[in-house]
Structures are given as structure tokens and as C-alpha cells.
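Ticket #4471: structure output looks truncated?

Reporter: J.K.
Steps to reproduce: submitted the chain below (274 residues) through the standard prediction queue, then opened the result file.
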Amino acid sequence: MDTFRFQPGETPVLLSIPHVGTAIPPDIAGTMTDAALAVPDTDWHVDRLYHFAPALGIGFMKATLSRYVVDLNRDPAGTALYQGADNTELCPLTTFDREPVYKPGQEPDAAEVQRRVDLYWRPYHEQLRTELEALRDRFGVAVLFEAHSIRSEVPRFFPGRLTDFNVGTADGASAAPTLPSRLMNVLSVTDKFTSVLNGRFKGGYITRAYGRPADGIHAVQLELTQSTYMDEAPPFRFRDDLAMQVRPTIERLMSLIVEWAWENAKTRRRAAYL
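Returned output as attached by the reporter:
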């Protein structure tokens, strides 16, 4: 079973979509509840929402396995992402609505969690690291864009309704300040959607682990409310009427990231790309 798809691009930008997968290996599926097998906490249709990325020369990676198998955006050591807050585990035990993921007594033990890390978590990260370093070595700079989405209302994690565009740079540690500043300038002029920088979602493990501006690798995460492009209730239908309203803003953000990357590249590859 392929655990992810990777397609290289022609710019210094890489798009990562680690929570869009829905597949569950049969041996693991047999231990899960019906609630978990419906994979409700998937970042539904995010790859479809960003279908324009290859046309901009952006490479992409996307997971095929569900986050319930192993969460690619969590620390393999099991360290909590947000200290003092409610966090889901490396191999989640409950859904966002606190329903059990596993049948009684069939939760993964430490050995099983490690097996999944080795078999499913590590390959994604090895490819991610290799590609980012290759882009940095080729262009002198690399930008990782982490694309995520979540229901607009999840009481477990935040009160009320979430801001539509949640941009995260680990409180400024994962990217040069000029990059998120430009992104927020774009978002601030739209009256259709709300936005915030480093609010409730500051960037997950991937953003924090790979964003190293001093080494020429910058990382930005976008957590988008699913209400902007889909039905948030089952069967989680993609809404073209909504997507056509939000996609131009997303495309402008991605185009801006490509522009910023070329401006900061140490090698002149833009002419060949254009």
C-alpha cells in the first residue's frame, strides 16, 4: 500500500497535505470502531482545493493513509503539540468529538505505535526532508506550505467558531517575517473571510520541525475552516459553489509564496521556469 504521493515541482516551494488520506490497513481497521472507520477528522478534499498548485510549478506531497493510523503532523516521541491544551496523540485514541477510535482492549501499545512510526510515519518525513533540502541546495531557499483544514466548530479544541484562515509560523520561528507579513496583507483586504496569524493554530510538528529560516528552509501552515469549501457534516461533500469563492484567495497566497521564494533564491532559475 502506497502511504503517500509525491510530485516534484519546478519552484522552491513544496506543498504538504498530511491529513487528507482516508485509507486504513486491514489489520488496523479490524481493531477500530465504526466511528473511527468513518474517518470524520480527515482534512477532506484539501488536495482538490489546491488542484492548481502544479500549474504554478509547486511540488506536492499528500498522505493516502488516515491520520488515525498515525498522525504525520505529530512528534514521533509523543510530545504534546500544544502544552496545557487538549491534544490528540501520535496514534489517536479518540476522535475530535471524543468518540473512541478503538474497540475496547484493542488500543495500540507502545510496540504497535513504534511499528506504525517506522512503517508509515518515517517514509513521509524522509521524503519531505530530502525534497526540502534538495530545493534549498538547488535554489538557495525552500518554502514548505502545510495545507490543513478543520471543522469551523470543534469545542474540544476551541470555543465558538474558528477564524476562516489560520496562518501559523510557530510564533515567527518557522519563517522569515516578510513571508507571513505578505500573506496576511492579502488576507486583510478580503471582506469574505476572517484571518489570524499564530492564533489557535500556530503550526504543527511539521511546520516546527522543518521551518529553519537560518538554514534557508521556511515553513508556513494554513488551517482553513471546512465551511469555506464543503459540507462539514457527513457525507462531507465538496461544494464547488463555495470553493469557487475561496479558491482565488488561496491561489493568490500560493502565487505570492512562489514570488517570495524566487525573490529570495540564490540561483537564477526563474527565467528557465517562466
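Triage note (M.O.): checked the attachment and the full C-alpha cell line is present. The chain has a mean pLDDT of 95.
Status: closed, working as intended.
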